[in-house]
Amino acid sequence: MPNVMPEAKIFSCTQSTQLAEKIAAAYGTKLGKVITSTYSDGEFQPSFEESVRGSRVFIIGSTHPGSDHLMEMLLMLDAAKRASARHITAVLPYFGWARQDRKDKPRVPIAAKMVASILETAGATRIITMDLHADQIQGFFEKPVDHLFASTIFLPHLRKLGLDNLTIASPDMGGSKRAYAYSKALESDVVICYKQRAKANVISHMALIGNVEGKNVVLVDDMVDTAGTLTKAADLMMERGAKSVRAICTHPVLSGEAYERVEKSKLQELIVTDSIPLKQESRKIKVVGCAELFADVMTRVHNNKSISSKFIM
After folding, report:
1. Domain CATH for 113
2. Active site residue 199
3. Engineered SS bond to 113: which of 51, 140, 177, 218, CB 3.0-4.6 Å?
4. Which domain holds residue 12?
5. In a domain, 194, yes or no
6. Which NCBIfam families does the entry link to (predicted)?
């Protein structure tokens, strides 16, 4: 008898249940059953309530802080490994701790490398993620990494807006490669903000490289945390004569006073994915779903088909 590939099973960590349900629906199945028991001191234990022996298992969960989100992913990977799953894919719409990808001063950790190592130790045989903070983080893994680009969903959205005199902007020098990729796809100009930080999340100086007068500007970044950089950049561009400023950021971390800053800023809108659930609603924040992108890639991975089209801007 020919070998029949068993159906893939999709499970979710608690922090990403809403997105995981959409991914499973787009995949054409339902989420597998997981029960999480919690002790009075906060310790928790996830349990698969169905057999995964010999199956390809997808475990969906963004690992944004707090640390419980990462810990839950690790425990579920370990449980799947010990339950004899054949392939265990960690689907991380947002790969947390990625800003610590190098030693930028003495005696600090490289957290992104550490997280990569413990994901593999816990049982992940493959990683699927989207818009890493730094592309080189893929090299921290010994297992295959499918690094998806949110541009595959953002670019069609931008084209539908029909903006004239479009200019793509990077809020810092580190994002210039991403900005140039968007500008090439949209055949637009590029401007870059140069910023200096006094410390983490505190900008001491910002300057603009390029002309934005009379332009509809779209700032592009992989994530928005406190929104300090984005809102400061938007204000600076409007002062320099921009017609409008909006921003596209894949991962809406949005911590601290971020929501208030966005509301009070000169940003016309902030467009994000649902890789991380929003903490509150905002009239300026628009969410573009990424479930179909992940479901498509997961289907291709399970059926051993090429996913190279998802890596092209």
Report:
1. 3.40.50.2020
2. no
3. 140
4. 8-148
5. yes
6. PRK01259.1, ribP_PPkin
Which CA distances in Å does 139 have to 115, 145, 305? 12, 9, 23
- Specify if 236 maps to a domain: yes
Quick one: how many helices (H) and strands (E) in the chain?
Answer: 8, 14
Domain shared by 197 and 128, yes or no = no
224 within some domain:
yes
Tell me which amino acid residue 208 is: L
- Compute and round to an integer the Cα radius of gyration of the chain: 20
Cβ atoms within 10 A of the Cβ of 1, count? 3
Sign of CA dihedral 265, 271, 312, 64: positive
Q: Are 80 and 52 in contact (CB under 8 A)?
A: yes
Assigned token pair, 284:
């300026």
Q: Tell me: cis bond preceding 66? Omega within 30 of 0 counts.
A: yes
Task: Look up tokens 């839950």; give the residue.
Answer: 72
Give the C-alpha distances (Å, rounded to integers) separating 87 from 5, 9, 50, 297.
Answer: 12, 10, 16, 15
Alpha carbons 15 and 63: distance in angstroms, whole number: 9
pTM above 0.85, yes or no: yes
Same domain flag for 46 and 68: yes
Residues 251, 266, single domain; the answer is yes
Domain count, the chain: 2
Point out the catalytic residue in the list 195, 215, 266, 305. Answer: 195
- Is residue 163 located within the same domain as residue 251? yes
